[in-house]
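User: Modeling request: complex.
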Amino acid sequence: EIVLTQSPGTLSLSPGERATLSCRASQSVSSSSLAWYQQKPGQAPRLLMYGASSRATGIPDRFSGSGSETDFTLTISRLEPEDFAVYHCQQFASSPWTFGQGTKVEIK
Amino acid sequence: QLQLQESGPGLVKPSETLSLTCTVSGASISSSAYYWGWIRQPPGKGLEWIGSCYYTGSTYYNPSLKSRVTISVDTSKNQVSLKLTAMTDADTAVYHCARRASYSPGYFDYWGQGTLVTVSS
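Assistant: Request completed. Predicted assembly structure:
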């Protein structure tokens, strides 16, 4: 099973700042098999990125993804108030599909 | 507008069987364009993929849960169901249903809000 480790656990930033979130895989993962989700309290997770760097429908371009093999990054160029949430990465390169434990982006 | 709504008991006793239903509106369960899945999140932990199914009845399960899980579709009601047997404390979680487009290699493009299931006597 591929284990995904997200860091940091919590990121404290101010609106307008840049957020850099990491997702590290225990084995190499094709970049086409990595997705990111955003989740706010009490809400359904929302697909942000797929294929590591492709934005889902309606996702603003301040969100970007990059990475390959075992190291992937989600970057939010300038945090808007609505971006404070928990972010999850997911791999579907091999079964079972697995998720990271999440990174919480909170207002500093 | 696509909506996925999970429903079921909020409290289950240890050793009992959990039965959850996901009612889909705004899309047809019978469409060849989609797969349907269940994902759960224990309190304070990450998301865990439980399994997925296709309208034909084909299913794909997480090996760690395979012996206890059944996912099925009811096309007449446009619902996806989850059954999980022999529940323990470790199964306490928010259970989400989600949609995966058939062209998607594994990501889920729409999720339900989830329903909290607590295992307690």
